[in-house]
Description:
Blueprint: E1 2-5, E2 10-15, H1 21-28, H2 35-49, E3 52-53, H3 54-62, H4 69-77, H5 81-86, E4 94-99, H6 108-121
Antiparallel strand pairs: 1-2, 2-4, 3-4
Helix pairs in contact: 1-2
Amino acid sequence: MQLFQLNEQRYLICLKKRYSWEHFKKLIKVSPGSYSEEFAKGLYSSVFYYSNNLGKEYRKFYQNEYENIYRFMFWRYGVSEEICAQLPSAASDFLAVFKAGWQMEDDDLLKDTFIAIFSELDK
């Protein structure tokens, strides 16, 4: 898992694949109906539901316009060339730009929790 901050509230995440809610919920072991389940659902939704799935968007709409997904990300989403150079060469990974409804950069505990949860998915 790789996570990059693009601006104050927008992030780029790179995961090996898109994960189901059931897999995500099982991995982090939340109790049904609990606050932790609601919190986890918010994190999950931010990344997998409300995000822009860059691979899917590129293949569906922009593959003929841009020479590769990284040029697309640079021109369409302002992802710097430095960040693109750190991403895997295979665009089959799940790449998404999502907006955090919270100030992750101002909350180290939240950011560390987010990174720990999503890193665990890719093991």
